[in-house]
Amino acid sequence: MIKWFPGHMHSARQQIAEAMPKIDLVIEVLDARLPLASSNALLTELRGTKPCIKVLNKSDLADPGVTAEWVRFFEQSGKGVKALAINATGKGETARLTRLGRSLMPHRGGPGKPLRILIVGIPNVGKSTLINTLCGRRIAKVGDKPAITRSAQQVDLRNGIMLYDTPGVLAPNLEDQRGALCLAATGAIGDNAMDHEQVAAFVGDFLLERYPQHLVERYRLKDMPENGESLLEEVGRLRGCLATGGVVDRQRAAELLLNDLQGGRLGRISMETQADIVVV
Length: 280
Description:
This protein folds into 2 domains: about 10-165, Rossmann fold (3-Layer(aba) Sandwich), CATH 3.40.50; about 195-275, Conserved Hypothetical Protein Ylqf, Chain: A, domain 2 (Orthogonal Bundle). About 40% of the residues lie in helices and about 10% in strands. It contains 10 helices and 6 strands; from the N terminus they run H-E-H-E-H-E-H-E-H-E-E-H-H-H-H-H. A 6-stranded mixed sheet has the order 3-2-1-4-6-5, with helices on both faces. Helix 2 links the parallel strand 1 and strand 2 (about 50-55). Helix 6 (about 175-185) packs across helix 7 (about 195-210). The protein is elongated. The model is unreliable at about 140-150 (pLDDT under 50).
């Protein structure tokens, strides 16, 4: 079972609560590959009636058809909620986000009345990348490990928009273990809190069911393995992840498979569809 809730995230929750009264609009950054697993019900609770844009980031790594379904889902989820699928590294795409934000708060953004936007999201969904692209320069730390941002900050974009940034927040109870495995697979959970072989086997089962052709193309498979465990063995043999005596080093094979998934080398893959989730 995956459990992970670093202590500094308790203070992040408090920082968000304190910032919310000064905010006009909330941007919640999600991973387009797993929009619900990368969301946080606490953020919805803290937001209250504030308008919100659900940003499905890393859409260039996700299955475009599935992403379009998620955008429609969020747009229909409640009053004041909009959704937008983007790649946060693209200035043109973030310009779409800025225009949408202004349209939701047309009375803000003028002299003396900046549009105050709080950007929130769990670790490693690309929140800092989005902030840096919006600013046109490096303001927030960016990395491929979760929990890079550790303190709140305020950034004046000098175009009538004021950004408020907070550390990533992840719910303390990862009771949905499928969601937790998806988070681990895409890099949102620290390496020390996960069993790479377990997560990779889960990913293997998922890919064999949903995206088998992606595996064939990436690893030049001649025969389709029966399950995720067998896939790890086959990938390990094909990619030279071998220990003494020619035995497959499953840890190395698992890390290779997960790195390929996270780097988009397996193609555009969505780990969640609405059919996978029971929404209460």
